[in-house]
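Model the whole thing, not chain by chain.
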Amino acid sequence: MISGWRVGLLILGCGTSWLAQAAMTIDITGGEATKIPVAISPFEGAGQQYRVVTDVVAADLLRSGELSLVDISDLNPPLVEPTDARFGVAKQRGAEAVVLGKIVPENDHELDVRFRLMDAVQQTQMAGYSYTANVSQLRTIAHKIADVVYQKLTGVPGIFSTHIAYIMQTGSVYRLQVADSDGQNAQTVLKSTEPLMSPAWSPDGNKMAYVSFEKGHAVVYEQSMATGKRFVLAGFHGSNSAPAWSPDGSKIAMVLTRDGGSQIYVVRADGSGLTRLTSGGAINTEPNWSPDGNTLLFTSDRDGSPQIYSMPSTGGQPTRLTFDSKYNVSPHWSPDGKSFVFVTRNEGQFHIAVMDVASGQVQVLTNGDNDESPSFAPNGKMILYATQMGDNGDLAVVTSDGQTHEQLVNTEGYMEEPVWGR
Amino acid sequence: MRNSLLVLLIAGVLAGCSSEATKPDNSQADAARLAAEKAAAEKAAADKAAAEAAARAQQQQVTAQPINPLNDPNSILAQRSVYFAFDKSNITSEYQPMLQAHAAYLVAHTNAKVQLQGNCDNRGSVEYNLALGQRRADSVKNALHLLNVPDAQMSTISYGKEKPRALGNNEAAWAQNRRTDIVYQSE
């Protein structure tokens, strides 16, 4: 809780410039079975001006696919005090929990946001927090509140305060963007007229590795999120690409063509100690570390079509994991190391799928024409990916059970290669 | 090469003149007269254009600019792209004459250098496509190598799916984008 908040503020504070809020429309689909019903009472003092707080909390909770909303907005005045005799109304409408709150101006530019999570049946408090923030931080506060509510009701840490990175192309301009988990508050980390690709967060969220074509070929950079300082991690002859951090942040796996073919190498995060892991004429790319650091998943066409393999992170004999399609790429481990998401081609369409490693069982989670670049949320409950709507590239989120989908439509540019960070 | 281009130019001028001369210009009717006047005007314009073309050709001859076969749109060397099937990097036989011509040119012009630029359509992963584009570039490099082009005259780069020639999500656009371009260094 505390450390997450600190990281959030750090990213807020280090931004070179905050873009105007992206024009996002939200479309959630999913079943209602077995969801925990929650009522969110309008916060006292919010009015229309600060209504964004409860709106964002509601959108976050719905996106999780595990909670549903009970409407008590008709109560006038709204429920604010935990002793209010009208709690029975929320309970009667099926709510198991109620979110109450107040927004009080502290001074000219700061607000005090207080909230309580109440058990609707017992009318007892489950959690209560107070935050001081300026108006531009209200969405961040709302994500914190959603995290508390989600964790208290499901027992799983929330991920709404985390951040995502992605590439956005507008005309011939490429941007490496960082945004809140709902795609809002987008900030440009890097802008280039040459392609940018493959953003990868360090495990602590303080650094980013990515690929830039600014020197005329693919070069891997490592950049500090706090200072914006960066250096060339790999700028060898040929292509340098597909950076992936080890879970302890000490090493980066990547793909180089300098010795012929696309081969996987591991280098220390300071750029020293380059070690080659693969050889042969086949393509080897998209390395991704297991949470224990012992295994790399990667994509290779060594058996004639791109498939997903695992091998020891020190190199060694690969094991093929996917068989069902002639095109399985972009593996990304779940945080518990029990499964991985990937892209599978199915009758000409590219879908996001998840494989349970122990059983080898595959579940296809999406049904777009061209879904790509899946990565798990830090709590393993949701998967972020890129999708196409017509000629537009959008971001989307699907719950790991495939039941709830949400699309983040951005009219500002073509978005791709999203990756979920801290 | 320069002479053959001149011959082509002159042949083109002659063809233009003769086609104008076959138009009817001896009718008595007003409509025919109008047509004749129009034809005469067209002939005058054609004559003028021919004269200008001849003057340009004359100037070209005088200044003796070497015509680079790489810039000749009628040369097989004007073909610069090898196209591939989905997820493939093997070169089909139809590209052999074109690759042989480029190999012959490169062998004859040891100062000439080419960059082989591999590209992919926009389906599938960015990184796999970057690797596939590299292999498409390498595939053309290997073919030229087998045709005796020294490695020092060739470099490769992959743009993956980042620099599509054709936009759109259909097979026509995808087919245009699955290719390796042969780019001469001075271009």
